[in-house]
UniProtKB/TrEMBL annotation:
Keyword Iron: no
Stored Gene3D superfamilies: 3.40.50.970
Keywords (A to Z) from UniProt: Transferase
Organism: Shigella dysenteriae WRSd3
The protein's enzyme class: transferase
Protein name: Transketolase
Cellular compartments per GO CC: cytosol
Length: 179
């Protein structure tokens, strides 16, 4: 799950995250996009929670402040989180909102509003992205294409559910949301 500063200010986050820790949901990984900006502006001075301590108190495994713009740091944190089986994990990613935008990076103007055509063009130039809009280079497209993996996962699930349905027809019918 992905959460920002504003998400963690809301009361429901306390309830849900506390329950996840209580239930020991070891497969749950939360990414906290900690950029210090909410829809209301900079959070400094009025959102002073020690988020890491809060989640540790909820019985979560906490991976402290990684560079959220560094793919290798993110991958390493995910692997660490996956190794923890008895509690959920929170990966705190330090980021800059509007990363790459020359005039709006780190500012609340980048939150909840389009950058605008000119700023997008400047950001694309700054980030070295020279492909036309909506064109994905083939190597990136193939690396991120999860259709085959998804089809295999769905097939495994269908087989497991069919076996469960055979063993427990009444319970399976109650739990089958596809009807």
């Amino acid at each position: 799950m992905f959460m920002g500063d504003g998400c963690l200010m809301e009361g429901i986050s306390h309830e849900v995250c506390s329950l996840a820790g209580t239930l020991g949901l070891g497969k749950l990984i939360g990414f906290y996009d900690h950029n210090g900006i909410s829809i209301d502006g900079e959070t400094e001075g009025w959102f002073t929670d020690d988020t890491a301590k809060r989640f540790e108190a909820y019985h979560w495994h906490v991976i402290h402040e990684i560079d959220g713009h560094d793919p290798q740091a993110v991958k390493k944190a995910i692997l660490e989180a996956q190794s923890v089986k008895d509690k959920p994990s929170l990966i705190i990613c330090r980021t800059v909102i509007g990363f790459g935008s020359p005039n709006k990076a780190g500012k609340e103007e980048a939150h909840g509003a389009p950058l605008g055509e000119e700023e997008v063009a400047l950001a694309r130039q700054k980030l070295g992205w020279h492909h036309p809009p909506f064109e994905i280079p083939k190597d990136i497209y193939h690396a991120w294409d999860a259709r085959e993996k998804g089809e295999k996962a769905q097939q495994r699930w269908n087989e497991k559910f069919a076996a469960y349905k055979k063993a427990h027809p009444q319970l399976a019918e109650e739990g089958d949301v596809s009807n």
